[in-house]
């Protein structure tokens, strides 16, 4: 596997670093403009989609279909008065939003937007740059972007921003571990950590020989490595602090979280960093799991679908699908509690990602060595053992639960003293007060006494009947 990929890696990476300075400047400017336009569009898109989910209209006044509403909001926010609290650390307070915004734009530099194209007669890849460890660069830059949030919360000199910053750092640590483990399976299948080469590795499906049969596996890693794809989807929502994981800026708990003491342009930079990060993680998901800029099937059957500037359209379309998922989650799911959020990361995502990574590594090693039959026999044996152990565990858990239920019922049968703590307390179901009959027994006893003392008896019922008869005769 490695010997087949290395020549391709050398050839692909050799295409970078040879552009003249003006081409590099055009690419950098183009990425900046693309991300700014994406941010303006995504704000409008989010408001429109959420409005449709809530049976509202959404923006419709400024520009066609309300498209200029986001631009008007941005201008209004940037022209607001800048307010600086008294207890802030001025230098860090000003630099924090700049760090977040700068890292958000930098992470997009290794994302491939298309194949080799012609820019003013110069042939160049539609990508600013690439590295042999391009995906690790994205993770490193995203980690540095969290420093802006943490420093912004600390430098504000207030309790709510500090709590929001600490929450954000905890989220980054928790969910970036699962995200990194989800990438390992992609690295094993593609044989590279370069973003451009991962896209090229998904150009054609791989063939697997199982029990003498040749099976053509799909090309997109979202299908081949579905657990990795699902783990990354959850992790990228937690990494970008978006609902239902928007705990660093939970309005109901922390006012605005780390951004509580920010206003005007500084708040706008935090806002911009969040939406740019959404685009970046969506573009990374497209690159690693959906074939990057390559056309989806059946458009890929057309020979010209992956040539020129047209693949840039496929790339934008795939990114917009992920943006819709972000908005869909925000309009559907309530915010998690913080303990639920951390439990999901540490007790579910990370263990599942570890087990899946070991499975993928074992599968790649055994299948490459020609042990197809032995590998599948081993997987079947492991599944049977796991099922047997789960059956034994469920049986023991059921017996334990029955024993605990019986013990609780026995404890409830003990006489109950409602005044044991000094205050009258009503009994729980199944408990009884010593010396008192339950309500149902008392009612049945009264009914029996009434039946024993009929119209001619000496009881209360008889007397009431006789008096009623006398009143009737007198009437």
UniProtKB/TrEMBL annotation:
Q: Which InterPro entries would you find in this protein's record?
A: NADH_UbQ_OxRdtase_su1/FPO, NADH_UbQ_OxRdtase_su1_CS
Q: Please give one Gene Ontology molecular function term for this protein.
A: quinone binding
Organism this protein belongs to: Actinopolymorpha cephalotaxi
Which reaction does this enzyme catalyse, per its entry? a quinone + NADH + 5 H(+)(in) = a quinol + NAD(+) + 4 H(+)(out)
Tell me where in or outside the cell this protein is found: Cell membrane; Membrane
Membrane spanning stretches: 20-45, 90-111, 131-151, 172-190, 210-234, 267-289, 309-329, 341-363, 375-393
Where is it chiefly localized?
membrane
Gene name of the encoded protein: nuoH
A Pfam family that the UniProt record links to this protein: NADHdh
Q: Which family, according to the similarity comment?
A: Belongs to the complex I subunit 1 family.
Start-end of Polar residues biased regions: 461-475
Annotated Gene Ontology cellular components are: plasma membrane
Q: Where is this region: Disordered?
A: 443-475
- The EC number(s) attached to this protein equal 7.1.1.-
Under what name is this protein listed? NADH-quinone oxidoreductase subunit H
């Amino acid at each position: 596997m490695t010997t087949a990929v290395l020549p391709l890696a050398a050839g692909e990476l050799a295409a970078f670093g040879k552009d003249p300075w003006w081409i590099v400047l055009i690419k950098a400017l183009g990425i900046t403009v693309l991300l700014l336009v994406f941010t303006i569009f995504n704000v409008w898109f989010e408001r429109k989609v959420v409005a449709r989910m809530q049976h509202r209209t959404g923006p419709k006044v400024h520009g066609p279909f309300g498209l200029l509403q986001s631009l008007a909001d941005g201008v209004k926010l940037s022209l607001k008065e800048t307010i600086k609290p008294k207890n802030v650390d001025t230098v860090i307070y000003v630099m924090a939003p700049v760090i977040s915004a700068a890292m958000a734009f930098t992470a997009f530099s290794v994302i491939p937007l298309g194949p080799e194209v012609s820019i003013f007669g110069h042939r160049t890849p539609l990508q600013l740059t690439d590295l042999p460890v391009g995906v690790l660069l994205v993770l490193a830059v995203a980690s540095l972007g969290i420093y802006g949030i943490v420093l912004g919360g600390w430098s504000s000199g207030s309790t709510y921003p500090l709590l929001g910053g600490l929450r954000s750092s905890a989220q980054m640590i928790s969910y970036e571990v699962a995200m990194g483990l989800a990438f390992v399976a992609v690295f094993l299948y593609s044989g590279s950590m370069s973003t451009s080469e991962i896209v090229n590795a998904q150009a054609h499906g791989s063939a697997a020989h199982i029990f003498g049969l040749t099976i053509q596996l799909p090309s997109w890693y979202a299908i081949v490595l579905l657990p990795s794809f699902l783990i990354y989807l959850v992790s990228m929502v937690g990494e970008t602090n978006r609902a239902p994981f928007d705990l660093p800026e939970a309005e109901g708990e922390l006012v605005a979280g780390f951004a509580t003491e920010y206003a005007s342009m500084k708040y706008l930079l935090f806002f911009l960093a969040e939406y740019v990060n959404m685009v970046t993680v969506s573009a990374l998901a497209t690159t690693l799991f959906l074939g990057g800029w390559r056309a989806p099937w059946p458009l890929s059957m057309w020979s010209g679908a992956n040539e020129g500037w047209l693949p840039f359209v496929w790339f934008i379309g795939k990114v917009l699908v992920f943006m819709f998922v972000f908005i869909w989650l925000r309009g559907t799911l309530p915010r998690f509690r913080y303990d639920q959020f951390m439990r999901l990361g540490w007790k579910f995502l990370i263990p599942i990602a570890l087990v899946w990574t070991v499975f993928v590594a074992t599968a790649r090693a055994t299948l490459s060595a020609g042990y197809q039959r032995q590998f599948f026999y081993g997987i079947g044996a492991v599944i049977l053992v796991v099922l047997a152990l789960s059956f034994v565990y469920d049986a023991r858990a059921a017996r334990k639960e029955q024993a605990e239920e019986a013990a609780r019922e026995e404890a409830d049968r003990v006489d109950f003293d409602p005044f044991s703590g000094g205050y009258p307390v009503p009994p729980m179901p199944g408990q009884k007060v010593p010396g008192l009959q339950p309500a149902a027994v008392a009612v049945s006893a009264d009914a029996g006494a009434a039946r024993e003392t009929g119209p001619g008896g000496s009881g209360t019922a008889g007397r009431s009947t006789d008096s009623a008869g006398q009143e009737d005769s007198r009437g």
